[in-house]
Structure formats: structure tokens, C-alpha cells
Design brief:
This protein has three helices and twelve strands. With 180 residues, it is mainly beta. The strands form two sheets. Strands 1, 3, 4, 5, 6, 7, 10, 11 and 12 form a nine-stranded antiparallel β-sheet that branches. A hairpin with a 2-residue loop joins strand 6 (90-95) and strand 7 (98-110). Belongs to the alpha-carbonic anhydrase family.
Length: 180
Amino acid sequence: NYKKKMIGKFILLLSLLLISTTGHVCYKHEGVDWETGACASGSRQSPINIVTANVREAQDVELYISGTDITTGSIHYHDHELKVTYAGATAKYTSDDEESEWALAQFHYHAPAEHRIDGKTHDLEMHSVFVSKTDPGQLLVVGVIYELEQGYEDDEFIASLALENLVSNPTTGHIENVPM
């Protein structure tokens, strides 16, 4: 078996970043030294380095996610992206002055992780992308960072994705009964 260490409460901060969908995202410049637009002056874009000494736990904020087991869905691999799409999961975000509902659109992986914690790059990061039920132009992204050890291939969730069937690029497959 393997141990996956999900980096704790401060990951919730990633999930609270609401972003608008305005078009195709392109990383053609790559790296963290982008020189134009929000990349030069913004403070809420990817990738980020989470400095744990500066993290504050959000007060009176809750995120409930339900319907996470996949009964049927699709898995798509293209270039360096692995994306799973299925219907069913929902999220409910509440704070002092707001309550909103979200539907899962897809989840995908970055290997190595897109974001860093205290300057350290981790093995894998999963992003669950939710779409607002009242404003489809708004997204809620929940990030989970993994540290993998030898034997991760024996993990029930990873095994259920049947990654060995993704033999060509691009390729799409069908998945069933995946426990989250």
C-alpha cells in the first residue's frame, strides 16, 4: 500500500478561489516568471506557493461535497492531461453572508503538482472543478496535493481508473464504479 498525505486545512484556500471562465487557457510561456497582464501584477493566479506560516484558517466557512462515487463516466488522456468527467457530485459552499451550490464538471491531475507548499513541489495534484448552479461562468476549484510512495499503483482509486488502457495519445475511455 502507499500513503498519500493530503495537505490539510489550508488547501481549502485553493477551493475558495472563484475564477471566471473567459476562454481557453494557454501555458505557452510556461514557468512562474510571466511578464504580462495579471501574471505580472496579480496575486490570485496559478501557480502559487502556499507559505504555511502565513496561512490563516477561514472562520465560518464550510464546503460540503457529496455524490463523489462515480457510477459511470469518461476518462480522457491528451498530451500531459488526464481528465475524468462524470455527473453527480455537488458542492455547497457557505459563509457568514453567502450560500451557493455547485455541480462537478470534471476533475483532472497535474504531475508534478501545479502548486507548491513552502517552496516544495509535491508528486501529484488533483483539481475538482465545480460550476456554479446559478452562474455557469463561475468555477470553484478544490485542490488536493498528494505525496506518493512506492506501491501507489495498489491504491483502489487509482487502480479503478484503469490507466493501463490509455495506450494512445489522445485517447478516451469509459469508467464505472469508481470509489472516491
